[in-house]
Every structure is written in structure tokens, then in C-alpha cells.
Design brief:
This protein is α+β, with helices and mostly antiparallel strands. The chain is built from 20 helices and twelve strands. Helix 19 links the parallel strand 9 and strand 10. The model has no long low-confidence stretch (mean pLDDT 93).
């Protein structure tokens, strides 16, 4: 019987009553492990709080708890974004509205509760702070601090000692030693993420005024220097080599060293990633082998970069007689390119450091004959007692893991407002019926990466098992963290169940040069596997052509 409250669940603050899985499902699609939440997400959330108070300034220090900052929540083991806090950003940001924030997060989702203003929501001092910050974002053309962060995160990997030589106490100390870095790096990630919507907003307004809203996507496609697209490009190079050659083996080893921190559900230290399960990389490389050289990520990127340059030149020509508008356009363009690439860099920096914690905990698990999953049922506060007497914890962790895995069987509500329903009342995954699309149906999602493509739909539910996907297919996926994005390379287009305008799937699709539509509700259930579909990444539509 599933427990109605998990050991790491938070109470819902009545001042911040609305929680949503929007965007949260991209970060932690599954219930987060207790050790992952208390050891790594505690400093991560402290960094999130720091960002709101110290960087973009949307909140005052006394408006967010230090121990349970109301930027998120956890219910039934699942991460939720606090929708009330997100709406505050819209209330207090100059030129923003809570309704505009809702549109970005929820679209026309039927469970979205209406925004109800309260006196404390208005905060002139916060609005002034945000105005200063937004102007800084809009005038930015470089974020050199992110390069410093990248080098620091790479040093964490390069300086990893032989973990087998450390004592248990030294391992625990090492795991905890990364908390300050996680806090600072995630603070940077949230600040840059918040800033990544401002430049595109300016471009969207310019494109709408010119009568071509889809132009905004073209203007931010193939901007270059996007760290999260680098693994896919590196895999492509491996796919061009003979898998039995020494060159391939050397290249594979270098790949794991550089990108081994990435993988499925990478934000939870419990998860297997490319370093701990390198066969995941082999599978992805093999999916690329059948794609012709002309479909390389570089070739696709170059084609889209040419389209972006042409669109940019056209807008500049149109606005040549309007210097003020042209100046706004140029600022928006530079800011968008800087912050969209920066967002993916900040994420990569955090993940690289978080992975060092994973490897420490993995060493503890192997040393004491536990599975990684079992050790991740610990709380951070139990680590010292565990290393002092690991066998005493075995029955407790076994029972806790059984309860934890039961949570995976339930579908978390997309939106919770005020009171969290007990987990036992949630629908079981797969139990909710959906209408399967038939020829002629048009499914609406959120436009992501521009362009159109037609191909056979391939519904892939596990990036480690993509064997049905062939070059020329349309990838239909539930979520797209970095474990999925190499599958974009052989595909002609990507359709995703979830996502928002600055989601990982969208940014990487733009860099790899393929159309992408996100937030197509239940796409993996509604679109028949093998159906011929047409994807329009500029309008956000998926049309079923035949069954």
C-alpha cells in the first residue's frame, strides 16, 4: 500500500498555495530519491532562493523560507515548481503580468487556477530591482563568469581522487564538500534561466509587429556555443568511426571523461548516467550510424545558421529607418543569443559537480554491498550513522525502497492548489484513457525549433531502448533531458509531451537543426507508433497524415 506522504514531502505554504509539474517534469521526471533530495537538492534550492533575493530581486529575504524556500514543493516524492512564486515574477516584473507567465508555463491547461491578487503581491521595491536587472540582461553581450564556472566544474572532475583509497568518513566529507559549489552554480543557473526569456520576448514583439510571429524562432536558431548540444555532436563523430578500431575506443573513453555526468534523470544522484552505464552511449551512437553524412549536426546547424543570418539581415533592412526600434532589436538579439546559450552552460556546470557526489555515494554502495538505489534511500542526516554501522540500516533501506518504488506507479497531478491530494487517490500511470489521433487530426503544442518535416512517428519511452528509431523518423518522446537529445540526430523532427519555451529540447533542437514541438499533451499515447505525421516547429502543430 502506497504511503500518502513521502518522507521528504513538504507542507504547502498557504501563502504560496499553487504547485505545478510544468517544467519540473523536465528536471526530475520521477520521484527524487531521499539522499538526492537532502544531500544535493538542499544546497541547490538554497541557490534558487539566493537568485530570487540577490540577483533578479523579485522577492525580499523574509518572503522565502531558508530551510524550505517556496520556489518549489515536493508531493509524493515528486518535484513541483511553485506556481505562486512564478506568478510573483510576473506581478513584479516591469512589463510582465501573471497571465503572461501562466501562458508560458501552462498554455491552455484546463486545471490552471485563475490568478487571485493579494495585497502583498505588489512590491514596488522588488519591481525597481527587477527593472535594473532586466536592463542589465537586455544589454548583455557576454557572460564571462560562466566560463569561469565551467573551468571550476571541470576541475572537480579532473581532481577526483581514487575514491577506493578514501575512508568512509572521507567519502562522506567529500560528498558534502560540494554543497557550496552546488548552491552557487545553481544560483547562477536560475538567474540566467530567468534572463533567457527577456531577449526572446523583445524579438517576439518585433516579429509580431512585422506580421510574422514565427520569425522570432528563426532569429534564435543555431546561435552556437551551446554546451548541451556538444554530446550529440561528439557522438556523431564516434558514429563515423569503425567501432572495432582503436580510434573509436580512444574517442569513446574521451567522450565518457568529458560527458559522463550526463544521462537519464541526471538531476538525481540515484540515476545511472553515461559514466556509470556507458552502454547507454553505445546504443545512442549505433542509432546514428545509419544516418548519411549529409545529415550531420554540423551540416544541419550550418543550414539553420544561414536562415538565421538571412532573417536577421531582413529585419535590419526593414528597421533601418527606425533607429530606436532597431536598437531595441539589436539588444534583444544579442541578449537572447547570450542567455539561451548561457542557460545550457549553467545547467552543464551544475550537473558536472552533482555527478561527483553521485560517484562518491556509488563507492559507498559498492564498498558495503548495497545497491546504489538502496543507499540513496538514506537521508543526508543518516549518512554518518550509516558508515558507522551499515548493516543496521539494511532492513530500513529495503523497506524504504519498496515504498519509494511504489510512488513510481502513480501519476502526479499536474497542478495542486492549496491541498495536496493523498497519493493513494492519484491515478495509476497508464490508467487514464486518451483519444488516439486519427488521420486528419492536428495536435497543438508549443512552437520550439522552426521548420517542417514529415516522417513516420516513432514513440520511444526509454532512451536506452531506441531500437525502433530509424533515420528519417519523427521522434515522439515523453521528455528530453540530455539522454534523449542524441536521438534528435537521426530524427527529422521531435515531438515531446512536456516542455516550455526555454526547455532543453527546444534549445538543443535549434542547435541541431531540426523542427521541434513541445507540450503536446500525451503525445506518446495519442500519436500512433508508425503513423505518418507532419511536424511544423514554427506553429507548434503535429498533423497525423495516416495511421
Amino acid at each position: 500500500m502506497v504511503a500518502d506522504r513521502w518522507i521528504t514531502d513538504w507542507d504547502i505554504d498557504p501563502r504560496y498555495p499553487m504547485l505545478t509539474r510544468a517544467n519540473a517534469g523536465e528536471v526530475l521526471p520521477d520521484p527524487v530519491s531521499p539522499l538526492g533530495w537532502t544531500l544535493t537538492w538542499t544546497p541547490i534550492l538554497a541557490g534558487w532562493r539566493d537568485s530570487g533575493i540577490l540577483d533578479y530581486g523579485s522577492v525580499d529575504a523574509d518572503e522565502l523560507s531558508e530551510s524550505h524556500p517556496q520556489v518549489v514543493g515536493q508531493v509524493g516524492g515528486y518535484l513541483y515548481i511553485n506556481g505562486t512564486a512564478v506568478r510573483l515574477f510576473g506581478v513584479r516584473g516591469p512589463g510582465l503580468t501573471p497571465e503572461a507567465i501562466d501562458e508560458a508555463y501552462f498554455g491552455d491547461h484546463p486545471d490552471k487556477p485563475p490568478y487571485v491578487p493579494e495585497p502583498w503581491h505588489e512590491n514596488p521595491a522588488a519591481t525597481e530591482r527587477m527593472g535594473v536587472w532586466m536592463q542589465q540582461v537586455l544589454t548583455a553581450t557576454d557572460l564571462p563568469e560562466l566560463r569561469d564556472d565551467r573551468e571550476a566544474s571541470k576541475r572537480a572532475r579532473a581532481e577526483r581522487p581514487d575514491l577506493s583509497t578514501l575512508t568512509d568518513d572521507q567519502l562522506v566529507a567529500r560528498a558534502r564538500s560540494f554543497s557550496p559549489a552546488l548552491r552557487q552554480l545553481f544560483r547562477r543557473h536560475i538567474t540566467v534561466t530567468a534572463g533567457s526569456s527577456i531577449g526572446p520576448g523583445v524579438l517576439g514583439a518585433v516579429a509580431a509587429a512585422l506580421g510574422d510571429p514565427s520569425l522570432a524562432l528563426t532569429l534564435i536558431t543555431s546561435v552556437g556555443d551551446v554546451d548541451s548540444a556538444a554530446p550529440s555532436r561528439a557522438m556523431w563523430e564516434l558514429s563515423r568511426l569503425d567501432a572495432s578500431s582503436q580510434e573509436y575506443r580512444d574517442g569513446f573513453d574521451a567522450f565518457i571523461r568529458e560527458f559522463g555526468s550526463r544521462g537519464p534523470n541526471e538531476w538525481d544522484i540515484r540515476s545511472e548516467v553515461w559514466e556509470t552505464r556507458p552502454e547507454l552511449v553505445t546504443v545512442l551512437v549505433d542509432r546514428m550510424r545509419g544516418a548519411p553524412d549529409a545529415e550531420s549536426p554540423t551540416a544541419r546547424n550550418d543550414k539553420n545558421a544561414e536562415a538565421r543570418a538571412a532573417a536577421t539581415a531582413r529585419v535590419r533592412e526593414i528597421l533601418a529607418g527606425q533607429p530606436d526600434v532597431l536598437a531595441q532589436f539589436e539588444m534583444g538579439l544579442a541578449s537572447a543569443h547570450t542567455y539561451l546559450a548561457g542557460r545550457e552552460r549553467t545547467k552543464t556546470n551544475v550537473i558536472r559537480v552533482l555527478h561527483e557526489v553521485r560517484m562518491v555515494i556509488r563507492e559507498l554502495a559498492v564498498r558495503h554491498d548495497f545497491t546504489m538505489s538502496e543507499v540513496c534511500m538514506l537521508l543526508d542526516e543518516e549518512l554518518d550513522a550509516f558508515v558507522a554501522g551499515p548493516d543496521e540500516f539494511r532492513p530500513r533501506l529495503t523497506a524504504r525502497e519498496e515504498q519509494y518504488l511504489e510512488l513510481w506507479q502513480y501519476e502526479p497531478p499536474f497542478i495542486i492548489n492549496g491541498v495536496a491530494p493523498p497519493v493513494s487517490g492519484w491515478a495509476r500511470k497508464g490508467a487514464t484513457a486518451v483519444d488516439v489521433a486519427v488521420p486528419g487530426d492536428v495536435l497543438q503544442g508549443v512552437p520550439g525549433a522552426p521548420g517542417t518535416a514529415t516522417g513516420r512517428a516513432r514513440v520511444v519511452l526509454d532512451p536506452g531502448d531506441p531500437f525502433a528509431l530509424e533515420p528519417g523518423d519523427v521522434l515522439i518522446a515523453p521528455i528530453t533531458d540530455p539522454a534523449w537529445t542524441p536521438l534528435f540526430v537521426p530524427a527529422v523532427a521531435v515531438v515531446v509531451n512536456v516542455g516550455a519555451v526555454v526547455s532543453h529540447a527546444i534549445i538543443v533542437s535549434r542547435e541541431l537543426g531540426i523542427p521541434c514541438v513541445v507540450s503536446v499533451t500525451a503525445a506518446t499515447k495519442r500519436i500512433p507508433d508508425g503513423a505518418l505525421v507532419s511536424v511544423d516547429g514554427s506553429t507548434g502543430t503535429v498533423t497525423v497524415l495516416d495511421g
